[in-house]
Amino acid sequence: MATVDYDSSADPEMDLTSDEELEREAEGFKEQGNVYYVKKDYAEAFNFYTKAIDLCPKNASYYGNRAATLMMLSRYREALEDSQQAVRLDDTFMKGHMREGKCHLLLGNAMAATRCFQKVQELEPESSQVQQELKNAESILEFERLAEISFEKRDFRMVVFCMDRALESASACHRFKVLKAECLALLGRYPEAQSVASDILRMDSTNGDALYVRGLCLYYEDCIDKAVQFFVQALRMAPDHEKARLACRNAKALKAKKEEGNKAFKEGSFEEAYDLYSEALTIDPNNIKTNAKLYCNRATVGSKLNKLEQAIEDCTKAIKLDETYIKAYLRRAQCYMDTEQYEEAVRDYEKVYQTEKTKEHKNLLKNAQLELKKSKRKDYYKVLGVDKNATEDEIKKAYRKRALMHHPDRHSGASAEVQKEEEKKFKEVGEAFTVLSDPKKKSRYDSGHDLEDDDMNMDFDANNIFKAFFGGPGGFSFEGNSSSGPGNFFFQFG
Q: Where are the stretches annotated Disordered (predicted)?
């Protein structure tokens, strides 16, 4: 009699029993996952939901539960995949659609989120939660639209504002964070921009946009070599990243042109250096810190070329770009000193000394204050029309010329107003000569002291000074004449 092999796997009743056992075991894992979820032990909850899925991979609720757990762990992309799998298995699974929409929203895809929430609305028309989520999605789309317009207008503050509002609902959106970071960099808020970009790179080290922003911050902080490294890395991760390509090109061009200008300056080719710095300034108007240095460099060249007013203007532009730029204040202050704008020089040196209280800065300030004080007195050198380094003979010759020019008797026929003005100038000439021809008085005057405060005899009689200077054989002789006009002198040529 033939023996028949019995295949137990073909027994339908045993297959049914096996499936039921798997489902019961899976339900057990799901219940354990629920317990851990309530305890907020999301890592353990995730493990048990995963075990349930492994046993019953076609149960939509298991994927939905694991998606909820992943959302609590901030693993939104994985949560999105589980939510999508859940609704593929059961298109009527309302919680699955809601979680998919929430994941899309958190990741910044408001359009996809809207479609999911509309599906929820079909399944549960009275849901107040879905109404709010639809409003959130609509708000994000509006902030995106406004941010795009503002970026084109270079209103970077508005872009930051829009992205902050959008991130309230889309907290996991790297795209919004990168745009915010880029605008923070363009506003000169580099530490904030670096912080945002670094947070993204900690989660995704290959994010080309975040690498670009890191490079942009370094570029704008004048760390050009390091910036280029980040731009190159960004292009390696995203070869079509046009912003990184442009920034890399600008960085290299700016560095090269600046170095050419520095080389020309060191070689004494000031005109060439001036032109090179001017060319460098046209490369990237957004690079505030480097452009501030370029303006200051050009101001230094300008002062060498005696373009002092242009140099002052360049320093002012540098300071406008970077209010903390001490070198620009010092350069402008020196130009103010050279053009005898002492009040402005004092103001700049005060700013410098308040920032950096060094002995050198203190001395510069004191010197500017002294020159300011001196400038408010009569400038006896200007009165005589001589240089501050004039010799004794030059001072005498100048006095002779000016005294004869302004002597009242020479203007006796002029109007009363002219006579009064010439008499005043005649007295000033005598006063200037008295001080500058006396070594002691001249020394005190040159050092900025008020001669009247030093108990020095500062009583001037211009006529007596004139008579003493011109009196004697071969000179001019004067005779009193009450009708001869102011000063009661008249010329009698011998």
A: 1-25
Cα distance between residue 13 and residue 21, in whole Å = 13
The token duo for 436 is: 């500058």
Task: Give the CA distances from residue 436 to residues 442, 450, 459, in Å, rounded to whole numbers and listed in that order.
Answer: 5, 14, 15
Q: Which of 132-141, 234-243, 268-277, 481-490 shows the lowest mean pLDDT across its residues?
A: 481-490
What pTM does this model have?
0.66
How many structural domains compose the chain?
A: 3
Residue-number span of the structural domain to which 428 is assigned: 380-492
Whole-angstrom CA distances from 315 to 185, 271, 298 are: 24, 18, 9
Q: Which helix (H) or strand (E) holds 98?
A: helix 94-106
Domain boundary among 122, 149, 172: 172
Half-sphere exposure of 81 (CA within 13 A, CB side): 4
b/e sequence 393-413, b meaning 16+ C-beta within 10 Å: eebbebbeebbeebbbbbbbe
pLDDT digits (tens, 9 = 90+) for 172-219: 999 999 999 999 999 989 999 999 999 999 989 999 999 999 999 999
Q: What is the CATH number of the domain that holds 389?
A: 1.10.287.110
